[in-house]
Design goal:
Length: 342
């Protein structure tokens, strides 16, 4: 397994990490992703990951209302030091007025709850799951810095921030000498390349590494969706398509056609090619892969240990390119002053 430095930190993370949103279940949205409980199957999934060098496990307090953290914590019992754990807070977890957001009150309660459910006394990477526009950034960053100073958190990160959210947070942290974000967990795939427009250049400039979630385009790049074929009977898209990114069908089919051709050339599967393409992109430190079962997990692990050629990458780039929105289309007319990151 290849390891990369996470942003501007000294922490090395595997290029593939395990997304534990499939652990737990009991909530309709997360059941659609997967619902592996704390049985031998969950234990086996963690075993396979550790044996393959996939030592980073990503979860969140809201995944199945905390059940994901509980299942993961039990699966890692007795071997905590072999793993890196990433979890998140900010989203609503409870019915009270302070059970949501990134206030000092909510973050403190969320962290203590995650530590308890995971059965650990520290979190390796602690994320803000989204931006909280109601809480002063100074309060948020001071709270996260305090967690690091207490030893309860090793590194801090964010997720789903816009460019100005991230840059302002970094600026506030730098102004007061507080701990900075080293990573940004982002949606990025061959059918979702908006990350490249502003967040990727920002990540390069500020040394913020990307942890990629939903790298198969919200389940669209599994190889089961093709031109002229109905949506498979077993697909989480039946329940979650409208909750996630919208992808024009003709565009999707064009990308899948290109993936099919390269899968045939390389002897790999469509998902493996799509994941390998992501691993060639600037700022990407780790790609988070989920799996319903052992077979799916082993398939995803086949995305590493080989590389697409430059010509093959260019073909996927061309098939998946979309016209950027303003001001990015304007900036791309002046590449001598605005050099694109890819």
């Amino acid at each position: 397994m290849e390891y990369r430095l996470l942003g501007g930190s000294g922490l090395k993370v595997p290029v593939l990490s395990f997304g534990a949103a499939t652990l737990g279940g009991g909530v309709e949205f997360f059941d659609a992703w997967g619902a592996t409980d704390d049985s031998a199957q969950a234990q086996r999934m963690v075993d396979i990951c550790l044996e393959a060098g996939v030592s980073l496990f990503d979860t969140a307090d809201v995944y199945s209302n905390g059940q994901s953290e509980q299942v993961l914590g039990r699966a890692l019992k007795g071997r905590r030091e072999q793993a890196l754990i990433s979890t998140k807070a900010t989203f609503r977890l409870g019915d009270g007025p302070n059970d949501v957001g990134s206030s000092r009150f909510h973050l403190r309660r969320s962290l203590e709850g995650s530590l308890r459910r995971l059965g650990t006394d520290y979190i390796d990477i602690y994320h803000l799951h989204g931006f909280d526009a109601m809480t002063p950034i100074e309060e948020v960053q001071d709270t996260l810095h305090t967690f690091v100073r207490e030893g309860k958190v090793r590194y801090i990160a964010c997720s789903n921030f816009s460019g100005w959210h991230l840059m302002k947070s970094l600026s506030v942290a730098e102004r007061y000498g507080w701990t900075r974000f080293v990573a940004h967990q982002v949606y990025y795939s061959l059918v979702g390349r908006e990350y490249e427009w502003e967040l990727m250049p920002l990540g390069l400039d500020q040394k913020v590494g990307a942890l990629v979630w939903s790298p198969l385009g919200w389940g669209r790049l599994t190889g089961k969706i093709r031109r002229g074929q109905p949506l498979p009977q077993v697909s989480r898209l039946h329940k979650t398509a409208e909750m996630g990114p919208q992808v024009p069908l003709e565009y999707l089919y064009t990308v899948v056609d290109a993936l099919d051709a390269l899968a045939a050339e390389t002897g790999k599967t469509v998902p493996q090619v799509a994941l390998n393409w992501l691993l060639r992109r600037p700022t990407v430190a780790s790609v988070i892969v989920g799996a319903r079962d052992e077979h799916q997990l082993r398939q995803n692990l086949g995305a590493v240990g080989w590389s697409l050629t430059a010509e093959q990458v260019a073909r996927l780039d061309k098939a998946s390119e979309l016209p950027p929105i303003y001001p990015y289309w304007h900036q791309r007319q002046f590449t001598e002053r605005n050099v694109p990151p890819v």
